């Protein structure tokens, strides 16, 4: 028995990268999972894999930019498991480009997924957690939530926003509900696939050469969940040694 066993954990953006690695890791520790993302075929495959390994998981197609979709996702978890212990607001996109490229659609998509998606996760889960008197919200920021580099102004702005939202939430509801931010450095995933700008894509190739496995972030998330109820891990920054 550990402090993850039997916990009901919801993961957004579980169809690849950090979300999928976290699902595998937490299922291996006995968590009961509800996985969400737009690509239901990927989630179905992951849920089968987890069940075959003896874990407990279910999935529901989810678009985090749509509050009704998020509410249905949280409701599905409650229906399946009776409560929710943790929501991991992990879904994110990173179409990097210089501001002067004026890729307004991509700016809006980052704002919609990376900020509104996190707010929607909070809006859907918080009332239930408050009525239960306990819960944990884990939000994915980034080292980009601490500093800005060229091409990453809007992405970083969304991750700074995640920091602000998480800190505000902690101050307001921290008595009963734990709030943790996980801020990864460069990690193996499909995140760079969302870059359409040719020069930003090229620059990212060398940056990503030193990426750490997504399992490293899964372990950090598991650490935050596994703490006893009177311990709230506010933030964990995880960087690959190869790419400081
Ligand atoms: P991936 O691209 O591998 O995963 C992103 C996930 O988000 C996918 O499962 C995708 O699923 C989901 N997603 C995107 N848009 C939506 C949407 N509208 N609704 C629901 N789900 C959506 O990248 P990572 O695993 O790297 O990203 C996970 C988080 O980690 C992100 O918040 C990212 O910003 C953060 N991060 C990643 C770093 C890295 O180097 N990899 C570094 C710092 C932070 P689908 O397309 O099926 O909907």
UniProtKB/TrEMBL annotation:
This protein's record includes keyword tRNA processing: no
InterPro entries: KR_dom (IPR057326), NAD(P)-bd_dom_sf (IPR036291), Sc_DH/Rdtase_CS (IPR020904), SDR_fam (IPR002347)
Top-level taxon of origin: Bacteria
Keywords linked to the UniProt accession: Oxidoreductase
Cross-referenced Gene3D superfamilies: NAD(P)-binding Rossmann-like Domain
Family annotation (PROSITE patterns): ADH_SHORT
GO function terms (MF aspect): oxidoreductase activity, acting on the CH-OH group of donors, NAD or NADP as acceptor
Ketoreductase domain segment(s): 7-189
Alphabetized Pfam families for the sequence: adh_short
SMART domains: PKS_KR
Annotated family: Belongs to the short-chain dehydrogenases/reductases (SDR) family.
Record's protein name: SDR family oxidoreductase
Lineage: Bacteria, Pseudomonadati, Pseudomonadota, Gammaproteobacteria, Enterobacterales
């Amino acid at each position: 028995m550990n402090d993850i066993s039997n916990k009901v954990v919801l993961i957004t953006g579980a169809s690849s990268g950090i979300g999928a690695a976290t699902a595998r890791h937490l299922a291996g520790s006995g968590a009961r999972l509800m996985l969400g993302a737009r690509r239901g075929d990927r989630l179905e495959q992951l849920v089968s894999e987890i069940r075959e390994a003896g874990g407990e998981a279910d999935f529901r197609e989810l678009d985090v930019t749509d509050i009704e979709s998020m509410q249905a996702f949280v409701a599905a978890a409650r229906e399946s498991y009776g409560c929710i212990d943790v929501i991991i607001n992990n879904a994110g996109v990173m179409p990097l480009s210089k501001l002067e490229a004026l890729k307004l659609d991509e700016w809006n998509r980052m704002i919609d997924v990376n900020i509104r998606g996190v707010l929607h996760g909070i809006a859907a889960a918080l009332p239930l957690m408050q009525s239960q008197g306990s819960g944990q919200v884990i939000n994915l920021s980034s080292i980009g939530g601490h500093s800005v580099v060229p091409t990453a102004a809007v992405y970083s702005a969304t991750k700074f926003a995640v920091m602000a939202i998480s800190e505000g939430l902690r101050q307001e509801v921290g008595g009963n509900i734990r709030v943790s931010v996980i801020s990864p450095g460069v990690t193996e995933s499909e995140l760079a696939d969302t870059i359409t700008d040719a020069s930003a894509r090229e620059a990212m190739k060398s940056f990503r050469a030193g990426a750490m496995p997504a399992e490293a972030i899964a372990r950090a998330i598991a650490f935050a969940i596994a703490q006893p109820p009177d311990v709230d891990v506010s933030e964990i920054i995880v960087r690959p040694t190869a790419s400081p």
